[in-house]
Amino acid sequence: MESTSTPKAKKSSRCAFEGCNARVVKIIGDCRYCQHKFCGTHRLPECHVCPNLATCKQASFERNSNKLLNEKCVKLKV
Question: Where is the AN1-type domain (predicted)?
Answer without folding.
Answer: 9-58
